[in-house]
Amino acid sequence: MSALECTRRHFFGRTATGIGIAALASLLRQKGYAAEGLPHFAPTAKRVIFLHQSGGPSQLDLFDYKPELVKRRGTELPDSVRMGQRITGMTSGQGTLPVAPSIFSFKQYGESGAWVSELLPHTAKVVDDLCIIRTVNTEAINHDPAITFIQTGSQQPGRPSMGSWVSYGLGSENENLPAFVVLLSQAHAINTDQPLFSRLWSSGFLPSSHQGVRFRSGRDPVLYLEDAPGISRETRRRMLDTVASLNRRHLDEYGDPEIQTRIRQAEMAYRMQTSVPELMDLSKEPDSVFEMYGPESRKPGTYAANCLLARRLAERNVRFIQLYHRGWDQHFDLPRDLTLQCRGTDQPTAALITDLKQRGLLKDTLVVWGGEFGRTVYSQGKLSEANYGRDHHGRCFTMWLAGGGVKAGTVIGETDDYGYNIVSDPVHIHDLQATILHCLGIDHTKLTFFFQGRHFRLTDVAGNVVKKALA
């Protein structure tokens, strides 16, 4: 069989299953083009910064003010409110589900009059830049399926992450940095926090060039990026050229798009040897910037430092910037640990909004804040005057959006008197995902990938754009 015959056979076979089209799209994106037909309409955002608060922040202690609960303190959660809802094994065996009102005070802020907890004084100052959604909901009640769902659109592992879908659909505007970058920071809380798995930023069945690249603190921000001792820049260049030549022969022979991915990744790594150290070098940032982001912003790997890096990545037109901050899983000792979490994240979060706005970047950068679910109104474990815990609650919780074409100074959705069920304007996880893609100029029903005999998409077969959230 000739090389030409082999190429033709692979070409027609792969095109018939959609893989040839994906390979062509991959080649086009390498040259700076988006996938075919994208964006579908004029975007309001060029990039996304997703501040994922892993573990599930308590909406009742931060944004969803329920003053009437004080009168119901210690009373049993009514069956008419719970309505037989499935709850986790951590509280299903409790003899009682006592109502636990927040011990933190709330005030209204800004022209929007949004209620914000005393734990978030800095966020309160930028509340008129936010679109607060109090009625986000999910079917998942445990961490792994819930965080997998919000990041990939499925509770089952294996699907592409949201950042990978965005990279696949829109490509990159910076050839020297990945389109999808991931930053992790550790908990400020004392109790043990939930683990995070690299599959959360995986490309799944999409070409692997769209996988998130984790940037770490320390000497080597990206593992295996530096040349080995004794290898000069010139030697590295000759080696890459030789390997690329061999890979191109295999690509011509077999037509496998993953070969093209290997070529691209090697070239990207070569360029990142220069771009990444420049990105991570904060020495030229003025003292006023560090003061704005807070005392931990000079310490690599902290949430504050990562928020500052997120702004620098946005300046360099990285398409999707994913921050994960651990430690929001307050089953016990919530007043203590939630206070610690907010103390470490509130100022840098607000600083990021302010910084982007001052630099003219907020108008085309969509910032998303929230966890995989919220917390229950009833206490997990013993309820006392000064202490309580809360279990997982997916039926309604709070997230917020800012910039990138969303309607600032808006509060969407109402929950019942217990903060347990949605009264108006529910926003499902797929609705949230559809809205994020919409801001990027993507019709979520049309961003698909053919795999194992069917077309897949981030929002599966559901999702509606939250029009009330759009400016």
CATH architecture field: 3-Layer(aba) Sandwich
Structural class: alpha/beta
Low-confidence stretches: 1-10, 12-33
The separation of the N and C termini measures 59 Å
Shape: globular
Q: Can you tell me the CATH class?
A: Alpha Beta
Q: Into which percent range does the helicity of residues fall?
A: 25-40%
Radius of gyration: 23 Å
In CATH, what is the homologous superfamily?
Answer: Alkaline Phosphatase, subunit A
| Content of β-strand | 15-25%
**Number of E strands:** 17
Largest sheet, strands/sense/barrel: 9 strands, mixed
Helix-strand sequence: HHEHEEHEHHEEHHHHEHEEEEEEEEHEE
**Mean pLDDT level:** 90
CATH topological fold name: Alkaline Phosphatase, subunit A
